[in-house]
Structure formats: C-alpha cells, structure tokens
C-alpha cells in the first residue's frame, strides 16, 4: 500500500484545553554527623494535590480526576517516597518506601456490588552498595521486599486487566544486582 495511513489523522482540537492544578510539594532531608558507627540519613519527598481540573478542548467543560479514575486515568491525591540510610566506609545501605494513595476506580457498572476503590500502594526496597574499589560500585537489593500485590482495579482502558499498571507493578519480590 502506498503512503502512510497515519499521516491523515486530524485531531486539531486535542490537548487545546487548559489545566487548573495546585498542590504542595514537601521535601525534608537529614544527615547525621560521621561517627564510629557511620553516618545515618533520612529523606522524605511528597506531593499533596489540592486541585486537578482540565479541559479536553478549548472552552470545554472542566473535568476532575483527583482521587478518581476518569477519562482513562486517575490522579492520586498524595504520593511520597521515604528513605532511611546508613553509610560507613565503602558501604551504603538504603531502605526506601514508595507510597501512593488509592482512588475511586473506573466503575463503569452502575451496580453497587461492582463499585471498587483502588487501595493504597506501599512498597519497600532494600539495597546495599559497596564502593571499595576505584571506579567500581556493586549494588545488591531486594525490591518490593514484602511481596506486595498491586491493588485490584476494574479499569479496562489499559492493556492489563485486574490492576492499573500506572499505579502499581505486578512484579512481586525481585532481586537486584548491579555493577
């Protein structure tokens, strides 16, 4: 077939609307003084979304995804990463928590027994890094160390069914080795 069939799609009204968003970003970091036991540190980064509205086309109605699945995707109100670590000589150990607040699911059925609220997602990763040789760093880790399953989602717009791939991973506990 001659020509590119995708070359003739016209979507001149797509993404021409406005967004009205507001939120608060938080960040806090702490690092101890070096001691015989090493150095300890902690970090927290979070986002609290207060408003998330958008138009699909210029002058159109404003849609709101905050805390609910709408028009193909949800917007979690709160997300965070929390890190605790220890460093001594050539060793660094990190414990990382990733958290995302749940939301009202797609819920395409009007039957109340099929209503779903996607649960919170909270996973922990543990890594240890050794840098005892110049220009060499070896990291070993345990990702999703408590083998947390993604919460159930009844969304049907993604390529996966049973969970929302944009909110959580179906990969259970996994091991990491990097040099």
Radius of gyration: 22 Å
Main β-sheet description: 8 strands, antiparallel
Beta strands, count? 12
Helical percentage: under 10%
Residue-averaged pLDDT = 88
Low-confidence stretches: none
The oligomeric status of these chains comes to single chain
The ordered string of helix (H) and strand (E) elements is: EEEEEEEEEEEE
Q: How many helices does DSSP assign?
A: 0
Shape: elongated
The termini sit apart by 48 Å
Class per helix and strand makeup = mainly beta
How would you describe this structure in keywords?
single chain, 179 residues, eight-stranded antiparallel β-sheet, two-stranded antiparallel ribbon
SSE diagram, text form:
Elements (H helix, E strand, L loop, with lengths): L18 E13 L7 E17 L6 E3 L4 E2 L2 E2 L3 E11 L2 E10 L2 E2 L12 E2 L2 E13 L2 E8 L30 E5 L1
Antiparallel strand pairs: 1-2, 2-3, 2-6, 4-5, 6-7, 7-10, 8-9, 10-11, 11-12
């Amino acid at each position: 077939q001659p020509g590119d069939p995708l070359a003739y799609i016209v979507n001149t009204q797509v993404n021409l609307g406005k967004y009205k968003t507001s939120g608060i970003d938080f960040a806090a970091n702490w690092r101890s003084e070096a001691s015989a036991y090493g150095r300890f540190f902690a970090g927290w980064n979070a986002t609290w979304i207060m408003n998330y509205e958008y138009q699909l086309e210029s002058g159109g109605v404003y849609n709101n995804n905050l805390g609910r699945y709408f028009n193909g995707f949800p917007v979690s109100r709160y997300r965070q990463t929390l890190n605790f670590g220890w460093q001594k000589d050539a060793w660094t150990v990190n414990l990382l928590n990733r958290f995302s607040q749940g939301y009202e699911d797609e819920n395409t059925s009007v039957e109340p027994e099929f209503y779903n609220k996607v649960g919170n997602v909270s996973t922990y990763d543990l890594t240890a890094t050794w840098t005892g040789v110049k220009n060499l760093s070896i990291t070993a880790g345990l990702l999703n160390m408590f083998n947390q399953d993604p919460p159930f989602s009844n969304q049907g717009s993604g390529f996966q069914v049973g969970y929302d791939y944009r909110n959580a991973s179906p990969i259970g506990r996994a091991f990491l080795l990097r040099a």
